[in-house]
């Protein structure tokens, strides 16, 4: 009985091997049509500087309703500029084939994403940039913000500091 089972299994394996080999050999000769790219940049994204939130809504908020700006970003325009001055050297990009995004835009996108808790897809739509671009920008900018603000607000503790914290905790 054992040899019959082994014979059936080897026959199945031979058939599978033959089928895979045929697919591999003939697959090379089948011409696949390349996926036709519809456009390099979606047409509505090209209007970023004319209709994007950063270029239209934010300047209007600062001029006409600074209180609403504060509600949207949890900081004043002056604090935004302070943070921008700290972060800008690390997030600034050079112009190459295309015009680079100014350092203020990634900071705006990141703060809009973090404050609103909205999806990156909607931030992408509001800023008129591609979703993967916004994803990369937010990831990079949050790292830079952390790197820049960590030494200012999260100072390393010494063993004496930990003893004092433990002592204060016990005496609560």
From TrEMBL:
Keyword tags: Membrane, Transmembrane, Transmembrane helix
Membrane-spanning ranges: 12-30
The protein's name in its UniProt record: Nuclease HARBI1
Native source species: Allacma fusca
